């Protein structure tokens, strides 16, 4: 059925079929695709077409190519960082403002805090507390404090056990890193105190207090942005790239 397809279109046929197999649950994280010679036989295309399809899937973060005697293509968790350049470009083209970012946070994060109160594990609390402690121990390190300030909210989202909220929180925080807001470095102790208030409410099982603490924190961050001498700007460089990777640790 693919005989008339040209190599460019043929590789997209393969990409689409593998994506569909993942969406349908036929392929899961950790599963291996058939060896290259078997893919050639199954799809009826040349080695060049198969390799082009695999490179496309690897670039999308859907597979990783394992080298060696028992190597091949393995389904993996997509890297959220791969979406950041597209989102940053979209922000530029649509003139997304920091006000819109804060408006989004003020609606989403109180819900995240409430769910985290209901669903967190001891490991979640330990990770959140560790992030706060790192900030307190490194108040003069602007980049580290910014990273931990954003990482805290990714960890908070993970405590909800809701994959969509985890994804949204991770992407928003990566966008904030790209905005290069420096205000956290100007008030690390205050941010750590606000984070601690959230964690304390979660530990007590007080969902309403967690919501209030998170909303107050969002308001304080918004005020700090408006008052900051350093402000913000869209950027994309090695420092921000490393900061976004550190969010996922």
From TrEMBL:
InterPro entries: GntR_C, TF_FadR/GntR_C, Tscrpt_reg_HTH_GntR, WH-like_DNA-bd_sf, WH_DNA-bd_sf. Keywords: DNA-binding, Transcription, Transcription regulation. PROSITE patterns: HTH_GNTR. The keyword DNA-binding applies. The keyword DNA-binding applies. It comes from the Bacteria. It holds the Pfam family FCD. Residues 8-78 form the HTH gntR-type domain. Coiled coil: none annotated. PANTHER family: TRANSCRIPTIONAL REGULATOR, GNTR FAMILY, UXU OPERON TRANSCRIPTIONAL REGULATOR. This is Transcriptional regulator. It comes from Shinella yambaruensis.
